[in-house]
Design a protein that fits this description.
The structure is a homodimer.
Chain A: H1 4-11, H2 15-22, H3 30-42, H4 49-56, E1 61-66, H5 72-87, E2 91-96, H6 101-112, E3 118-121, H7 125-130, H8 134-141, E4 146-149, E5 159-163, H9 165-178, E6 184-188, H10 194-211, E7 219-221, H11 235-251, E8 257-260, H12 265-275, E9 285-289, H13 292-296, E10 303-306, H14 309-325, E11 335-338, E12 341-343
Parallel strand pairs in A: 1-2, 1-3, 3-4, 4-5, 5-11, 6-7, 6-8, 8-9, 9-10
Antiparallel strand pairs in A: 10-12
Chain A binds a DNA duplex through helix 2 and helix 4.
Chain lengths: ~350, ~350
DNA sequence: GTGAAAGCGCTAACAA
DNA sequence: TTGTTAGCGCTTTCAC
């Protein structure tokens, strides 16, 4: 790697002249600027980021800790994060806590060692279950700006980006009722997460509001254990989900709609109902979380509630960088809610 | 952030003493070591990575450029990369080229600015189509170690990690033939990629070897355009895939097996065949690429060829870090082949 | 056993 | 318009 010093030597000027010339300083004559920049290009000179960071005390790098990259939702979030970060001139260093508190602590520890200007964090399942947030307070103590997304907690004061889980499901029930559905079931594999709980609460409240009552039999919980890593890694889920759904549909006489609370169970529900020769959506509407691709994977295609994960990622980055650039730590924190939208599919 | 200087001042010793003490140097009396380390812990002192990097000319960071994080295969690769990197004490900076040559150039440019000790790269579709690799040569010119994975090219000399695409499909055909299958179809949405071509060539060769001939009618290409971004983002694919598969199955009289070359088409094939009331696997075996989760998404569950993406990621990291640590640039490069395995499912 | 000084690559205040 | 110098936080050689 060629350095300022080397350029300076070659041209018999001082290092600072070279530095200024490369920064187009108007202290330097255009003549020398051209001379220096030409040589720099010729030798493929690149500023050394590390040296800049040390000097400026800025790394132009963000730390990202997500629970599980194999969950398509977080893959999309990460994608959004990368896009937005790049637009604003930041790199991202990524970590996946794999739903483990211990890992999350490790990673935030690594990050706090001062190689990052700010942190994006979605809490692990274990962290939420154990209600253990002191490792995060460490960050804020060290004055490292933090934005939490999707998996958040009230216990930490910072900017946040989430979706309106409760309202999303409430409104989905409402919409199904408007379409004339009379008996709506709810399938969830994530009721151990706070987002999952908000979703089932939205369902419960809507049932009470629209049907005057709530029937516990109409909720199918596919995963009962707490602290099971994400459903995609759950042997239990893989082995039992299809059967459980099949029994659920069979036993719920008159069921004419299903809402699935996570981004896999909806697909399983459509495929299972198809196998049972149920006419979808005539006799049974099915709605799940996901995106266009998720929708394709079932036949008929699942109607999906899109959480706009990419947008969540982008928004989080923008909030974080704003926070980094605003000197005042005194600002009040805001929680941004990204609206969901229901899309396409032929299953509703 | 507390610095060496501050610690030194508080204890009335020199900066170098503090530095040595924190590194447990035997130049320093155990008394002072304890004194200094105690204070350091108390004040939550952390070495400044940036300063260390500047000094040592090592960043302990790897640059990762993948084509598309929304492709589950690469999500798993990234996961493997993160795990292995962490184990070896490295951070990763990630970029997604979104199958674009221009982006790939940008990102390698950013990376080459000296903030990374080595690079992991899977080429974008466009890069491969345009046969344009000069931006990669730049890396090697700058002596930045490089490992290419999955999407590689002969044009660049470096360490590589791939799967045996040709043999995988060849052997799969062989296995189906052994099971008594007489007419095996091949569905691909990635024939514009070199990995896709290797797979279809494996299929062709096997047909010739086991059936004495090869019938072009038995290959269904779901995406014909070149330079279409990944299939998940292809409107064309989303709209036409199911219908195309349905027609393909209908028109191929006597078809008793299907191999799908990508990690989505297999699911669509099962779901489509199910809808046509074909008895799977009795009358039709179906095999696709993917993993346990992929398998779940169809009913009956798709039999999958697992590429062991996580292992690919881990292996790449280990090769890269070995290369970083071995001073000699003269070493010959190796290409590691990760074997695939066919697993589970009830569709074969 | 401890400290002074140089230097990693860069910027910026100040001097010339 | 250009150069000198100090310093970002750390390690390391060499004196003391």
């Amino acid at each position: 790697m060629v350095t300022l010093k080397q350029l300076a030597k070659k041209l018999n000027v001082s290092v600072s002249t070279v530095s200024k010339a490369l920064n187009n300083s108007d202290e330097i004559s255009s003549e020398t600027i051209i001379k220096i920049q030409t040589l720099a290009k010729e030798l493929n000179y690149k500023r050394n980021k590390i040296a800049l960071s040390l000097k400026s005390n800025k790394t132009l790098t963000l730390g990202v800790v997500l629970p599980d990259i194999l969950n398509r939702f977080y893959a999309k979030v990460l994608y959004g994060i990368q896009i937005a970060a790049e637009e604003l001139g930041y790199d991202i260093i990524t970590f996946f806590s794999k739903e483990s508190l211990e890992k999350e602590i490790d990673y935030l520890q690594i990050i706090a060692t001062g190689s990052v200007d700010g942190v994006l964090l979605a809490l692990s399942e274990e962290t939420l279950n154990k209600n253990e947030f002191s490792h995060i307070k460490n960050l804020t103590l060290n004055n490292i700006p933090l934005v939490m997304l999707d998996r958040i907690t009230d216990k930490i004061s910072c900017d946040k980006v989430i979706i309106d889980d409760f309202d999303t499901i409430y409104n989905e029930v409402k919409s199904l009722v408007k379409m004339g559905r009379k008996k709506i079931g709810f399938i969830t594999a994530i009721n151990n997460l706070n987002v999952g709980k908000h979703r089932s609460n939205g369902y419960r409240k809507a049932c009470v509001d629209f049907f005057g009552k709530f029937d516990d039999q109409l909720i199918l919980k596919l995963v009962h254990q707490t602290n099971i890593s994400h459903i995609e890694n759950s042997e239990y889920y893989r082995k039992n989900a299809h059967n459980s759904i099949e029994n659920f549909i069979r036993e719920s006489k008159g069921l004419d709609a299903i809402i699935a609370a996570d981004n896999i169970s909806g697909i399983l529900a459509v495929n299972t109902a198809s196998k049972l020769n149920i006419d979808i959506p005539k006799d049974l509407s099915i709605v799940g979380f996901g995106d266009k691709l998720t929708s394709m994977l079932s036949l008929p295609q699942l109607t999906i509630i899109n959480q706009h994960a990419v947008q969540i990622g982008k928004k989080s980055v923008r909030m974080l960088i704003n926070r980094i650039n605003s000197k005042s730590t005194e600002n009040t924190f805001v929680t941004e809610i990204i609206p969901t939208t229901t899309q396409g599919g032929s299953s509703k």
